[in-house]
Structure formats: C-alpha cells, structure tokens
Amino acid sequence: MIYTCDNCHFIFSRVSQPEQCPDCGKYAVRLADEAERQEYEERLKEPREI
Ligand SMILES: [Zn+2]
After folding, report:
1. pLDDT digits (tens, 9 = 90+) for 9-45
2. Alpha carbon of 4 to ligand 1 centroid (Å)
3. What is the C-alpha separation between 18 and 48, in angstroms, rounded?
4. Tell me, what's the pLDDT at 36?
5. What is the rounded distance in angstroms from the CA atom of residue 46 to the CA atom of residue 35?
6. pLDDT of 1 strictly over 80
7. How far apart are CA 29 and CA 46, in angstroms?
8. Using CA atoms, how far apart are residues 36 and 17, in angstroms rounded to an integer?
9. What is the pLDDT of residue 11?
10. pLDDT at position 50, please?
C-alpha cells in the first residue's frame, strides 16, 4: 500500500498503515490517492540525484 503524509507530503510504501510519518514524524499519514500513487511510481523510475 502507498501512503502519504499530509504535513510534508512524503510518499512511501508500507505493508500496513503507520501512525507516524517516517520523514517528519507527524501523525498525519493517510492512504495516497491515485495521483499520489502515480507520482510515487514515477519517482521510483527516476535516477536519484544526491
Ligand atoms: Zn511527514
């Protein structure tokens, strides 16, 4: 399942819904909608720039 954080808009994948955002630590995690899931999958295809 793909989830997103309403606070920082971090999109991530988890088997079950976490209470806290792994990025900012806020309790604002919800299921990602269709557009957010697509954004997440597009991001996986792109090479990471560090
Ligand atoms: Zn967050």
Report:
1. 999 999 999 999 999 999 999 999 999 999 999 998 9
2. 8
3. 25
4. 97
5. 17
6. yes
7. 24
8. 16
9. 96
10. 66
* Ion ligand 1: residue ranges with CB closer than 5 A: 5, 7-8, 10, 21, 23-24
Residue type, 15: V
Would you mind telling me the total number of residues written for the chain in this entry? 50
At 5 the pLDDT is: 97
CA of 15 to the centre of ligand 1 (A): 18
**Sequence spans of domains, the chain:** 2-45
* DSSP for the chain, written as a single string: -EEEETTT--EEE-SS--SS-TTT--S-EEE--HHHHHHHHHHHHSPPP-
